[in-house]
Structure formats: C-alpha cells, structure tokens
Design brief:
By secondary structure, the chain is an alpha+beta fold. Bound molecules: manganese (II) ion (MN).
Amino acid sequence: MTKGNDDIARTDVNERDFTDNVVEAYQTYDVLVANIAKSGKDYDMAAIEKAYLFANKAHAGQKRKSGEPYIVHPISVANILVSLGMDTDSVVAALLHDVVEDTPVTLEEIEKTFGSTTAQIIDGLTKLSKLGFNTEEEHQSENVRRMLIATNKDIRVLIIKLADRLNNMRTLSAMYPQKQRTISRETLEVYAPLAHRLGIRPVKEELEDLSLRYLDPIGYNEICERLSAQQADRHAFLEEIKEELREKLIEYNITNAELSGRIKSVHGIYNKMIMQGKSFEDIYDIYAVRIIVDTVTECYAALGVVQTTYTPLPSRFKDYIAMPKSNGYKSLHNTFIRKSDDPNKNAVPFEVQIRTRDMHLTAEYGVAAHWKYKTGMAAEGGNKVFENTVSWIRKMIEDQMDSESADVLDVIKEDIMPEEIYVFTPKGEIKVLPRGATVIDFAYSIHSQVGHRMIGAKIDGRIVPLNTVLHTGNRIEIQTTKEITNGPSRDWLNMAKTSQAKTKIRSWFKNERRAENIEEGKAEFEREMKRAGLIIPDDKFDEFMQEQIRKSHKDSIDDFYAAIGYGAIVITKLMPRLREDYARIVIKPMGLQGIEGNFIEEEHKTFKGDPGVRVEGIDNCQIKMSRCCNPLPGDEIIGFITRGFGVSVHKRSCPNVPEDISKCENPERWIKVYWSESTNYREFKTTLRLFCLNRKGLLADVTTQLSMMHISISMLNSRELKDDNAMITATISVSSKEHLAQITSKLSRISGVLSIE
Ligand code: MN
C-alpha cells in the first residue's frame, strides 16, 4: 500500500518550513520518468515520450515569465498528475495541454497523432483556458458553469486543469503583483472549492495557502512565523502523542494501526483567526493525529482507546462515518486535551481523526482514486466517489440551465466556507450572522422596529429582494417607513434564518393580528390533518382537540389555533403526536382495519431481499418488518396482508395487533409467519440508548465492550445531559433477540451505565 501522498506537496506537511519561499525545482523530462518509475504504476512510456517530444518541438523557443523554457510547465503539470496516480491519457494530455492554445498546432493534428480521447481532453482544456480572469461573482459562476460543461464529457479535464493551476500558483512569483492578486483570488474562489468538491485535499490546501500568500501576505507570514517558531515543540508534541497512542492501541489489540501527525493548513488557521476572530490558542485542531485502521469497528474501538487516554471534549465529537461530507469524506473527529507535565504550560488541545485505509484514500485522493487503484476496496471507494462526482456535475449543469447562474458557486462553496458571515451596516459596523442569513435577518439584528418597518433593502448600493442571501463583505442598507404600514409578511418566517428574527416576527403577529392568526391557524391545522389522512369524526372532535390544547399548554382552542397562526406551533413537527392521539382516540375503538392506509403502512421499512421470515402457504412474497414493534428473531410474530405492500410482520404482542383475531374486522388478513432457519446468520440493525453517569473513558468502555463482542457499530453518538449525566446512542447489528439481550446485559455491567433502552 502506498503511504500517504505527501509527494504531491513538495514536502511533508508536518515538516514543512513555513517561512520558505515557494520555488519549485526545475523539472525536466528525466524527473518525470524517474517519478513514473517510482510510482510503481503501469504507464505507456512510448505514448508519454511521444507526447513529450511533440510538445517540446511545438513549444521550442518559448519561455515562461520566469525565463525557463516553456516545456518545464507541462512537464511539471504531468508530474503532479503522476503523484495523484492519474493514468497515461492524463499524463499525455498534461504534456500537450497548452499546445493547441499557444502554438500553431491544431486539434486535428492532435487527434491524428494521439487519438480521439487525448484530443477530446485537450479540446476541453483549451476551451477552459479561454475563460478570462474576472473577479466579479457572476462571471466567476459563469466560468464554473462552463468548466463543468467542459468537464461533463471527461472529468479528467478538470483534474488536469487543477494541476495546471497548481503549477501556475507555485510559479506565480514571476508575475506582476496586480496579476498575482487577480489569479490568486480566482484560485481561492473557483479552483480551491472545485478541488474540495472533487475531494483532492492536498491540492485544495496548497491552492488555498498559495492564494493567501498573495492576497494577504502580512496575515500569511504572521501565521507562518507562529508555526515555525513552534516547529520543534510541535514535532515533539505530536511524536509523544503518537507514541502514547501506539502503545495503548496495541494494549487493546489494535495492532495494525498507522499513526501520523498533521498541522492545520495556513489558510485553515487564517480562516479561524482572522475571519472568526479566534486567537491562535483558541483553535483546537491546529494539531491533529491521524489513526488509520482496517475496519469501521476498529475505528470506533480506537476512538474508545483514545478516550481512555486523554480527556475528550464531548461537544467536539463528529461522526463523519455515519454522516459523510458531501464530497464523500468519512472519519471520526474528536478533540482532546492533554495535560502538560510542566505546570507552567497550558494543557494543549489536539484533534484525533480516525478512519479506515479506504476512507483515507478517499480523503486524500477523492475522485482521483478512481484512476489510482484498479482493483480492490480502494478502487471500489474511488469508483463510488467518481460516480457521485459525475452525477453531481450532471445535476449542476441541469440545475444551471433554468436558473440564475450565480448559484453554482454557492453550492460548491457550501461546505468549504466558515459557518458565519460578516456583513456591514452603512456606517461600517460589523454584524455576524449565520451562513444563509438573509436581508430580513440583518434588519432584525439591528432592531425589531427596523424589521417591522422595512420596505426595501440595498446591498452594496443595489436594490435587492428581502430574501437575498447575504455574503461576507456585503454592506446592507435597510429602507424603512416612519409608520408601520404593512408590517412583516408571513412569508418572512420562511425567509429568515436566525431564530432571533423569527421570534420577533412571530411576536409581532401574536400581538397585532390575533383574529387573523386564529383563522390562519385553523385553516392550516385542517389542511395538514387532511393531507395526513387524519379525518376526525364529529363525535371525537372535542376529545381530540382538548388533548391538543392540554398538551400544547394552551387555555382554549382559539389560543391553540392562534399559536399555529403566528408560527409558535409548527404543525409538521406536531405530526407524530397528532398521529398517536388519532390512533388512540379515533382508530383504536374502531379496530385495526381502519388504520390501514394511513397509519401502519407508513410505519414500515422495507428489507431488501429475504428478511428471514417465511409466510405460511405463500412463497416469495414481499415482507416488511413493521416499525411499530420492530420484531427480532426469536419474538413471537404474526403477519398482516396489506393492500399492495405484501405482508407486514408484527410482534404478537404489538398494540396494533388485535388481541382476539377471530373477533376483529378482517380475520382472514392475519396470517401465520415463522422465522426461517437461516435467520441465525442474519443481522438486524437496532439502536440502543444508554443513560449514564458521565465519567472519563465511559464511551471508551462501551465501544471496547462492543468491539470485544465483535459487534459492528454503524453509528455512535454521545452527548452530555444535565447533572453530570450523559446519553450514548449506538446503532449496532445484532443477530437475534437473545443476542441483543446478551449485549444489553454486558453493557449494563459497565460502571456508570444507568439504564438501556
Ligand atoms: Mn498551462
């Protein structure tokens, strides 16, 4: 297995000298040949040499701004692609990428000499290089849109373009300062987010760091100086942690773990310091230790081990395995504190990132893993990211066809941007709002009277609709009237992002418009009930509504409706309770058959393939485990023949099953079902909730116990409750009811575990 990909960057991030000037070694064809040999990958050397000779001849006599012969640039781009593990076609195209653009050679000649695949990639790249530099947002978006269209035929176009840009950024010092800034801004706003979306982390980070060097040299150098001042300490610190953890992991039988230390990128630190106003010491993930293990179960077990070793910060646990990022990134993240032996020194926070080898390859190479590995798990992971990316590009292009093109950048930037935005009042006062905040949020953040009286708004001098999403740097001017004429509109509740604005809008409606609220609320309630198929007969109406008034802590039915009207009660959130009450008050007395269609059916989850249940007298029918009682092998069960959904399986003891079937409405629809023999080998997912007394190492003990019992965990979450209590939620795979009982009994013996649901 290849170790990391630090050869993409010039040096290991951990060892990087942050004060050094970025000068790339002069790269000749020999260097490319040597790197290819070192990669161990099979390349068609004849094709590559042919491309080199062709390009060398075409660019003969041309020089770069730095004075080097032009051919050095395509060779460097080809080198980056080799380090990413890209294929022969990509390397050939990289060598030829500027030939059509900058020399008399035509695309037809390329096609004749190198074939249609290469010609198509070169064509895409040539079109991209014609996109001009322009920093206005609409133009950027238009560039991205055209880039995606050019990429749609072959995603390698975009990967080669990123490598091209990376080399240009590495050699940017030869350009005029004005040009440096323009190119850097475009890199930061367009290319780095694209590299992020493709999941190619080292390229994304280097593009960001290099852009920052030119856009804010003072800020960049300040961070570099801090980092290099601490370089020796930092190195020693990470080495110690790695040593301690390595020993511990072996002690807990995780023998195959790979550990590495890592420093947050300069741009990442910059974002937190300068954009979010944090001090260097307040950034908890400057230091990170990565643990790479074999399986998902080992990931959680390793997390447990780290938690017994250091003090975890519970609010800083992130499970990207259960909930991967949009670019396919998976890992467990948790921040820890290690107390220093020296009482004069502060405890140092650091982040631990835990992942499997496959997750690691996806995290580092993203879509490029598709070309790097031809077989095995890594190739599968790469293919999945590849397919996701391709379909994402298709979708982006489609979406862009019929809407404003300004959106495409927002979508790409979505998970790269900080959570907060910084905007300005006309007087230059700064306001911090969450990402996605609109003009309405801004108006209410100034004063509720500004919000209520707002009739229009300008961003940077241009009139905009009130639902316009704000961006960092916007200067917003709110136009108001002296008297409240219309007041806020109900739609504003949907357009506002902050709870502050929503609360103020609601309270306005609450106070000003009671009659209207009641009417609106009643209409909405009736509409939603009807949509959910919950029709209340007249004789049950009072009982049902009294229940709602009581549960919502209201005094009358008008108060209940009014609360819906001004938005304090969100009816969709109330739906589970309404269904429950409906089942109890309206359905129960009618017998089960009335539930069918709008109650039980929705509570089913479909099992793919054979769920391990046999139906008496019927072969191969569709079977679903009902979600109301979640039967497990070993439970006494019964089937119900649904209309069009096959047979649903309930526990015999489920409240939705009539106690005496012979006396119920449709006895013929209840049918005998059995667990089939093979169910012993089958696994069912179930979620456990553990209420615990919080203590250090608790989560560790739980995960260790589960991993010792060879239980696979598909999701794990812990959070602190009041009074030193904690709740751990774990979704695990179990094979039977007995198995589940065994697990809960083992877990309940762990000290601190109070109860298990
Ligand atoms: Mn180029």
